Predict the structure.
Amino acid sequence: MTKIVTGSQEFFKGINQVQFEGLESDNPLAFRWYEADRIVAGKTMNEHFKFACSYWHSFNGNGSDPFGGPTHFFPWETKTDPIERAKDKMDAAFEFITKMQMPYYCFHDVDVVDYGNDVAENERRLNILVEYAKQKQKDSGVKLLWGTANLFSHSRYMNGAATNPDFHVLAHGAAQVKAAIDATIALGGENYVFWGGREGYMSLLNTNMKREQEHLARFLHTAKDYARKQGFNGTFFIEPKPCEPSKHQYDYDAATVKGFLQQYDLLADFKLNLEVNHATLAGHTFQHELQVAVDNNLLGSIDANRGDYQNGWDTDQFPNDINELTESLLIILEGGGLQGGGVNFDAKIRRNSTDSKDLFYAHVGGMDIFARALLTADAILTKSDYKKVRSDRYRSFDDAHGEAFENGKLSLEELRDIAVQMGEPASISGRQEYLENLINRYI
Ligand code: XLS
Ligand code: NI
Ligand code: NI
């Protein structure tokens, strides 16, 4: 059990720590599947997931949208002094995280404390909050999964940060990244994330794409070199997304980022932080993105959420699709798990979810469905013929001519002669419905 850590006032009054109560429970503020210490496939659930709470959606996002203002009025946003306000927010954050028994959190620099336009003053503010967070982490045992810098909200970044055509803006982005890396290191952060929301373009008419991408690569190298020099030995993650807010983002999807990292010699230090809703925006399933990452040894971390099938933007809803997650956990388990990262809930409650309990329901549901998907996927992998059905499809490459082809031993002429000799192939079923039913049977 985690110790509940509150500040001078309790922000989530009347809500107790969420506990595992099992399937018999009808308590909506209890876990029915998530049992932190339960061993599945050789690791505890806690080790599989390393669940993290995202600061921005849970403690900053106030429900405003392009058509209307805030609907979430937080009691930790009342003080006028930015440092005092930030401390209240951090009190609320650690109270929530410890009541949820989540082991990790993630933040952008500006989530933690408001930034102005003075670099040195911003650094001073962040340092004060880093000291405050250190004590909170110590009191609670909660750890930092990753830190990052917000290089997309400030108006100076309207044309990008590392890919801005104006070097002056790039330097400001670098200053922010330096301070965010320093904060991450000071807090024992295990990873550092780059999400380039505005690293892309709105119109190719005014864009030198090649030059911008070279700047992005140089920027990443420079940041990585600095962090390594400071003793950071965690992993850097790039978080792909195809668009929004840019019309076209350079880190479009997992395959694109893989090519970029390879081209610019960054594969040794960087992996991917994959987000469900970003995958679907790119026209992929989340499973597709996971498989690309696994196949390239790049699966670092995930941002858990889901989109909405009826619209085409990043709605960041809490995950609740058991089929999607079971299929995802199959890939994660078979791929050997997340490398260094965890499961960060990059998800927000709806604008009209205005009770303080709503944030708890959302996270309980998210953690529980991941746990259920893990148990289901593990059962499928260990008890069913799922893996065999797939490997059997490739049987013809295991020996004879197929094996010779895989080993590069057959020429095109020889392949032609084999085709003649073997005659027309028999049709072999892909058995898709069989496998779909199998997944549902285990759920
Ligand atoms: C936005 C991104 C962002 C990153 C962190 O769509 O998901 O929240 O995770 O900058
Ligand atoms: Ni996102
Ligand atoms: Ni994200």
In short: The chain has 16 helices and twelve strands. The two ends are 29 Å apart (CA to CA).
